[in-house]
Automatic annotation (TrEMBL), chains A, B:
Pfam families: BcrAD_BadFG (PF01869). This is N-acetyl-D-glucosamine kinase. It is an enzyme of class 2 (transferase). One of its GO terms (molecular function) is N-acetylglucosamine kinase activity.
Amino acid sequence: MKRCRNGEIWDFEAMATGREVILGLDGGTTSTVCICMPVISMSQPLPDPLPLLARAVAGCSNHNSVGEDAARETLEQVMADALSKSGSSRSAVRAVCLAVSGVNHPTDQQRILNWLRDIFPRHVRLYVHNDAVAALACGTMGQLHGCVLIAGTGTIAYGFTEDGRDARAAGAGPILGDWGSGYGIAAQALTAVIRAYDGRGPHTMLTSNILRTLDLSSPDELIGWTYADPSWARIAALVPEVVSCAEAGDEVANRILRDSVQELALSVKAVVQRLGLCGEDGTDSFPLVMVGGVLEANSRWDIGKEVIKYISKEYSGAFPIRPKVEPAVGAALLAWNSSMKESKKEAYIR
Amino acid sequence: MKRCRNGEIWDFEAMATGREVILGLDGGTTSTVCICMPVISMSQPLPDPLPLLARAVAGCSNHNSVGEDAARETLEQVMADALSKSGSSRSAVRAVCLAVSGVNHPTDQQRILNWLRDIFPRHVRLYVHNDAVAALACGTMGQLHGCVLIAGTGTIAYGFTEDGRDARAAGAGPILGDWGSGYGIAAQALTAVIRAYDGRGPHTMLTSNILRTLDLSSPDELIGWTYADPSWARIAALVPEVVSCAEAGDEVANRILRDSVQELALSVKAVVQRLGLCGEDGTDSFPLVMVGGVLEANSRWDIGKEVIKYISKEYSGAFPIRPKVEPAVGAALLAWNSSMKESKKEAYIR
């Protein structure tokens, strides 16, 4: 283990116990969560609730947003916080899984692995993934198998076969057509308001509802509102208005939500198809993990349930899961699972 | 006439002749053009070519982009340049028409009129419009009647009745669904490439064509390329690739262009309908001015021609015009026309 740049952040280790632990980290664009768990037996069923030693939270750790150095500093600090809170030290760590948004290429993965290697002792097993992988693992309790559909401000479908092949669909952002996302739904609703106003589209309840929510008096003020701040999350925050109009029977809002269901289902189907998760006859069982605000139940219009219906018609073996633990826990379980598999393989080779 | 802030920019006036002139200005987000014309007889036909005394060019004059002060300074300077080049002075100006992008509300119009009034002597007639109005006037040679369709990076349809009512459709930018625009066409093409790549859409020639143009090796690199620079014009610059794929028979590219034609035609129809430009039985004659890169002819796929076909089916009186003079000339003709009408009205009242 080399000396790390910010030596002082690890000073607490002098007081640490020797209990063996695992670290799981979920790093997104808004926040980063690190979980410290004791080493547990991975035999099913897992203890419920899972024993967690500590949870630490930090800001953005996406290197595309804050730059390489700031991202690394945030990641190192939040891991140190979690270990410090749990009274453990780096030498007590058995495995670490970092699931960070912005990790899209093997080169991103390798860069992060290189500096992680400098922080931890040699015996620690290290894993780096895209944050969608932690979302899958929090539904499958650490198994890297099946498909996860994430739909919040953005959307992505990500899947793994049991032999380690992966595939993704969507996740390319609003310009490149992630229409099923929260941003996509809200942008289509705003467009529908403009179209109704200038005579290109039917009247819709969305007009009064959205203008009231944004405290605007006329649809042409939406142009200024939209371009004053290009944040996708600010626009995606209008999804509840679309859902409530749809629930009140507005046809335009209903069409937008039905289209969103189709788009989201199409992303899942693309991943399932490419990986052959459903087997040759289309009936094999596989986990379908559903994560994110857009997929959560509303009083009547439940986008997640509609997506599942759509998928189940085609793939009878799709097994829908709404995770009960957070993605950082998924990352920790994945770290432990992967490390156990590697240990077994190494024992076999010896 | 009050002293203007930048007194020195008008120093040339001491040398000016007394010949009466008109100023027409077309101010956009990329550049601003000011034309100085001698006073001519507005009886038809107009002289061809039109007598122009001077043409001056400056940068952006959209107050939303550069701020109020910088916009005002640019506008004043480019008018001074045009007058100086033509050897005229402010007291020789009969009428000025400023057609500037970003003028959307009567309050924008009034603010600009207020400071214009400080620059010119009291007898000068002043007119302020949105830049789409200059585009209409350059097709109608100064008549404020009919509908203009502009489709470049963005798109807008704008129309006027002979008694001065106006209406617009689209022009709300890409987030708010201007899908027929150059940006809209190109963004849909990029989306089609991503969808083909991740298994959500059919194979398309657009993939190899666009990757070659952008010097990228894989569709997933498009994500980085797209978000590295959010300029709409940079994305809209891919329209020729879509047209060439469509001309080579690619079905995906053809569908994108057909959809664009529908969207553009829908904007025109909304304006024509709201203003009743086609008369009660739908057969009245009205000018339909077509402006912008997207509407220009290509070897086989002519988007502008297809839009005209579509509109003419519904409104047999639509009279398509592809302007031969630039919008600043349209603004000058409009200034002269409006000022003649006002003079007549005043003479009648006296």
